[in-house]
Amino acid sequence: MSKTTRLRQKWKVDLLTYIKPFRSYLSKPVNKLISEVVYGILSSGSLKMSEIARSLKEDVDLHHTSKRLSRMLIKHKLQKKVETEVLRQMKNELNENIDPGDLDRRYAEECEFLGKVRDGSSGGIISV
Fold it and tell me: Is 122 exposed, middle or buried (0-12, 13-18, 19+ CB in 10 A)?
């Protein structure tokens, strides 16, 4: 077994471990789709469907693989489900005690939710 093959196997195992929480409420074909697409993105370094399909190295024609992945992604509308799960996983890692004074946007003139706070370090009023 070559070094590249072993590295691919390790990526697949790590990837399947990462998407394990999704398995509880998604069907088996959808879980397979998620793992294939994410693995394809990581191994090809591209978001192009043809590059993702090429990196999967399946025995069928490249066009058929690309078409299958596209069709499945459109059919299952995974964005909301994946977004919810990722936010749930990240919730534990975020610290709610963030001081907005540390988020200095001194040069921002037009920014969404731009506000003014007192900076404890400098003692002045800054934009955050």
Answer: exposed
Q: Calculate ∠ Cα 60-61-65, nearest 5°.
A: 80
Helical H segments across the chain, by residue range? 3-18, 28-44, 49-56, 62-76, 79-91
Q: Summarize pLDDT for 107-124 with one digit per residue, the tens.
A: 666 666 666 777 777 777
Q: Note the pLDDT tens digit of each residue in 27-36.
A: 888 888 888 8
- Cβ atoms of 54 and 122 within 8 Å: the answer is no
Any idea which residue has 């506000």 for tokens? 115
Listed by start position, the domains of the chain span 3-91, 98-128
